[in-house]
Amino acid sequence: MLELKSRQLDKSEEETATEASDTDLQQRIEELQRADRSLYNLMGMEVWAIAKTMDDIYPGFWHQFMENRQLAFKQFMQEKRQAHRSQD
Questions:
Q1: CB 9 within 8 A of CB 17
Q2: What gap in Å lies between CA 12 and CA 9, rounded to an integer?
């Protein structure tokens, strides 16, 4: 039968293991942050490419899109306020 044996880490080994895991964790966090920034930048380029293409096909597209977006946001905020008032 297989028997697992464990050994206790002495204090210096524990500190080294903790420091290594902290360093590894910090590196992973930085990698995730870089990946997040890259994804955000890529999404921005895609939106810009779509907007530019649509503006070339239909001049004024982006302006109209932004006006519609602003109107939709105002309507959303009004509905949210009304829902909040009806709860009170």
A1: yes
A2: 8
Angle at CA of residue 30, ends 24 and 33, nearest 5°:
145
Are 17 and 7 spatial neighbours (Cβ–Cβ below 8 Å)? Answer: no
Summarised one tens digit per residue, pLDDT across range 17-75 is: 667 788 899 999 999 999 999 999 999 999 999 989 999 999 999 899 899 999 999 99
User: Residue 63 corresponds to which tokens in the numbers above?
Assistant: 């302006």
Predicted structure pTM score: 0.50
62 burial class (0-12, 13-18, 19+ CB within 10 angstroms)? middle
